[in-house]
Every structure is written in C-alpha cells, then in structure tokens.
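Make up an example, fold above all:
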Amino acid sequence: MRPHPRNARIKGDPFLPGRFIFGDSLDDKGLEPCEYVIHTEAPAFICRLVGNDDTPFVGRDAESFASAMLFDEAENITLYVCNAGFRLFDFNFIDEVPTAGALQQICDEAMQAYQRLQEAYAERESGYRNREMRTGPTEPLLPAERTRHIQSLKDKARQALEQPWMKMQLAADVQMALAGGDQAVFTEAQLALMDTPDARQLLIGTARGSIAQPEVMRKDGSIVSFELWALPFAFTRSQGGVWWHFPMLEKLEVPLADALEVPEKSILWISPTLFTLEMLHDRACQNLIHLAPVMDAGCDFAPFDPDASRATYEAARQTREPQRVLAWIPFLIERGAVPADRVRTHARRALESAMPVVQEAIAREMEYEEAELFAPQPWWDALENTVKAWNRKRLATSMALLAATAGTLSGLKAEVEYQPEQQAYDLRLHPENQPTLEVRVNWVVQPDVAPDREAAYADLAACLAEAGIPLSERIGRIH
C-alpha cells in the first residue's frame, strides 16, 4: 500500500454498518462503567447502556418482555427501562428527534439485538453452538411387510454367497434395512440364516462394514467416504441415570486432528453424542448407520427423543445409585486421511490433548467422579478391545475382593447364567467349601449388529481356565 496524501479528500466506502452497534469507551480513568449503543439509521442517536436496573415501572413484574419510557423531572432526562434489567439514558440525537413511542420501539429492538449478541458471545467463549438434533426413524413395519423384507434380505445374502457380483446389491439392501427404522428386519434375517453360517457371516460383515465405513451422498450428488472411529470412555457416578449429549465435545475436533496429523483439507468430526454400553445394546448398534449423514449435514445425532430422555435423566439423577459407566465417543475421519499406524503412533499425544476437553465437556452437562479415556481405535476394534478389558478388570477386582475375604483363591467354583435383558452373563464366584461366601460379576457381551453371546462365554471360560477355575452354566427355565 502507498501513503495517503494528507490533503486528499476521503471517499467513503458504500458499506452500511449494522443498525445497532454496541461497545465500550474510555475516559481519563480508564474503561467507563457503562456501554454505548449507536443507532445508525434515522433517527440516528447514541446513548449509554447499563444493566442490573430495577427502576419501578408498570410491567416490571410481567413474565413477558415489557418496557417503558420514563422522564426524570429532577434530572431533566429521558430514560428507557425494561424488565430484562437494562436502562438506556443520555440520548444524543444526530438530526431529527423521535417521539417517545417511536424511540421506545427502537430501544425494544436494540435490547433484543443486545441479548442475541450476548448469547453469541457466550457461545463463542464456550466454543460450541447448539445445533439441530436429528433422530433416526424407529417406526416398525406391518407384519406382512416386515416378513417380506426379512425374506428378501435372506435371499440376497444367499445369492451374494454364490454370485459375488450380487454383493453390491446386498450392501444396498442392508443399508436400507438398517436405516429403515424397524430393527427386527436385520435381526430376524441374520437369525434365520443360522443354518447357512457363511451367508449369515456375509450379511453381518456387510452390516458392520456399512457402519464402520459409511458413505454419504450429498445434495449436489457428490459422495464422501468416511471411517468411523471411537474414543472409549469410562467414568463413575454416584447418582442414577446417564446423560448422552455433550455439545462442547465439538471443541475436541481441532486438537484431535492436530494430534493425529490429519491433513488440513480432510474432515475429522467429533460426535457430541456419547454412546453407552446399554444404548448400543438397546439398538443392536443399528442406529449408528444414521451417524455419518446427520453429522455431514451439520447436525447432532439423537439416539432417543432429547426432551423425553432429558426428563428421564433429571428424574434419575435425584437418586443415589453408585455406578461405573462404559461408553464410546464416536468420530468420523475422511477415508484414507489418516493411516491406522499413525493413529497408534500418536495415540498418547491424542489422549493428552483430548482428555482436558472431554472432562470439561462432560462436566458441563453431567456430574461424574473419576474418568478414564482410552486411545482412539476403529469402531469395531474399540468395542471389542474395550469390552474385553472391561470384563477382565471387573473380574480381577472381584477375585481380589473374594481373596481378601476368604483368605485364599484355591478351590474356587464359577457358575454363570445368561441375562438377556442385560446382554451379559451373571457370574457367581465362591469357594467350594463356602457356597455362601460369593462375589458376582456381570460379564458383558460385546455390542454388535448380531451380539455373539457364545463368543463372550468362550472368552470367560478361557480366562477362568488360565486361573484353574472350573466353570458351569445354569440354564434359565421358564415354567
């Protein structure tokens, strides 16, 4: 740029400022104790603004917004006051002077703009904004239509097993089944293929791939491919209930992307929705199919109705119910942007940058005591590895408690009974000669589109076999 001649006339730019401008000013003592309001349109004026005003006027106690123009005879000044606690005074008009009614209307609009500005400042300070919440469809199909969809999915799986070129059609049908809102369609289809294990595994693998590597078609016709990852998260609570939506988690995107060295123009999106073990079991992980399209649209995914869920949580948190919660924080990375080896190499740096943000985001919405955050992993690896570690840690803690009480771990017996409502095995450990002295552990099944309780049982049996503890299973009977 070149210097401007001192005697040159300045031509104003054709740029109109906002109708209301709010700001501070300095005097000889520093920052003035009030703010200023500038109205840039006719009638143009400037005035002072203060808060915490309690000047009495008709309408001060009204529930809705109310205001008044007052005249202070002692001071010979005009005041504007409102029940939001603001006062405008020292009006200086640039040209025309409005009537009291016209000025009151302008001041009402100014105060509404001021309150929106304060909300914008608060959101900027907290680092997040409230986004639209979207829930996936959950409406079941009519019995005849459901049966038809189940049969079609079974047939497509068998055909794809014999004719590999049919796998693309199978992937599209699985996507539609998961996104359709009737959870029973996919569940019944995979259960009906128990007599054809290869076709069943192909169907399950296709569903897992659709969730772990989603593709989103945008309105302009372009397709974006993602990979679904997760940060496993465990925490304790002394109250009942668990909340699941944490808008401040959005602040995690930048430090996590920096820690994992995600390329500048590649996408990394954190889901502000946290998924607990129970939430994943409740929908058999099927509602995760909606996560990528909702996040790509700039919205937050709601696994349940937010208002009803919040009311349930607020009621439950009034009770004292010590609990330890296992959950996952999902995030999407544009496919191919970050090699898995790089994530493993930078896992510690990612955890160090993520933990303070996660703690702040969770604490803002829900009380908790202790918390652990684990290294980022691809979605299904995160579920499998974390559930295995969770089960073993709980088992080791329970056995240590039993050893402290009984004085020994020799001669232990283990019995389990599957609890369908909990998607877990109820494990009972006790010394053979002291059947009344026991500890109980919930050995949970990994959440999946097709939870494998047999694999969970085999894993438990292997753990106990290493410790030399025999295991027997009680089969629940319905009379």
